[in-house]
UniProtKB/TrEMBL annotation:
<dbReference type="Pfam" id="PF00106">
    <property type="entry name" value="adh_short"/>
</dbReference>
<comment type="similarity">
    <text>Belongs to the short-chain dehydrogenases/reductases (SDR) family.</text>
</comment>
<dbReference type="GO" id="GO:0016491">
    <property type="term" value="F:oxidoreductase activity"/>
</dbReference>
<protein>
    <submittedName>
        <fullName>Short-subunit dehydrogenase</fullName>
    </submittedName>
</protein>
<dbReference type="InterPro" id="IPR002347">
    <property type="entry name" value="SDR_fam"/>
</dbReference>
<dbReference type="InterPro" id="IPR036291">
    <property type="entry name" value="NAD(P)-bd_dom_sf"/>
</dbReference>
<keyword id="KW-0560">Oxidoreductase</keyword>
Length: 233
């Protein structure tokens, strides 16, 4: 179990969308400090928030970030990118790029920060996946989130008995810049943030933050036509 009160937390992509809501909720829970990254970070009015630059696809940027956060005990891998909606009509470089942002980027950061969290006495990692870890939609984006889900599950096992818990976060659409074009119902970032942080404090392996995530996971055990009704002829 990880208590967030008094903790030092790093939130990637912590200045917009769900990451920003996570930072706000962390402050409400009494964290000592929260490092909030952005590619072009803006100052914060709260002295406990330390804005730092991060381009998650750039190893030099990751290295600089790691050097700037020697006191963290909790890592929130929230930053993520969307992708074009198709596989067949998208340049392969664009498919690779979203894997760099959503799979290799957080992996590189986690690899660099696990020793730091261990040195600081242990802590927690939260990885932002999606309901689309379990449903093919929005092109390669869903594949990156499926791969990230399995990365999380594997790292949780590698970290067993090393004092670092790992929580995977799954949710359907959330009202942020990422999905402005989507008209389907969306959760509020604040509601997702609260459940995510409750999950860290409870030591949950997985947080299914809305009905879409719960339905997507349940669909895995059913015939494919349950998830993809368009396959029924
Ligand atoms: N919104 C949804 O419907 C939804 C649903 C399920 C899962 N998610 C996941 O939740 C997480 C947060 O998404 P959001 O909805 O808050 O999206 P958002 O509003 O578009 O914000 C994306 C965040 O990721 C950061 N980011 C993107 N590419 C980056 C890169 N190359 N290097 C460093 N940072 C980068 C952005 O930082 P900058 O400030 O530098 O741009 C921003 O903070 C993502 O992992 C997303 O896949 C979102």
């Amino acid at each position: 179990m990880t208590t967030l009160e008094g903790a030092v937390v790093l939130v990637t992509g912590g200045q917009r969308g769900i990451g920003k809501a996570i930072v706000a909720d962390l402050l409400d829970r009494g964290v000592a400090k929260v490092y909030a990254t952005a590619r072009d970070p803006k100052p914060s009015s709260d002295p406990r928030v330390v804005p730092l630059p991060l381009e998650i696809t750039d190893q030099a940027s990751i290295d600089a970030l790691v050097a700037a956060v020697p006191d963290i005990t909790v890592l929130v891998n929230n930053a993520g990118a969307s992708s074009p909606d198709t596989y067949l009509d998208t340049p392969i470089e664009d498919v690779r790029a979203v894997f760099e942002a959503n799979f290799f980027g957080p992996l590189n950061l986690t690899r660099a920060l696990v020793p730091v969290i261990e040195r600081n006495g242990g802590g927690h990692i939260l990885n932002a996946h999606s309901a689309l870890s379990w449903v093919a939609l929005h092109g390669a984006y869903a594949a990156t989130k499926a791969a990230f889900w399995l990365q999380t599950n594997a790292i949780r096992l590698e970290l067993l008995n090393r004092g670092i818990g790992v929580t995977g976060l799954h949710m359907g659409y959330v009202d942020t810049d990422m999905v402005t074009a989507v008209t389907a119902p969306k959760s509020r970032p604040e509601d997702i943030a609260k459940q995510a942080l409750d999950g860290i404090e409870a030591g949950a392996h997985e947080v299914l933050a809305d009905d879409t995530a719960r339905g997507a996971k349940a669909g895995l055990s059913q015939d494919l036509t349950a998830t993809y009704p368009q396959l029924v002829n």
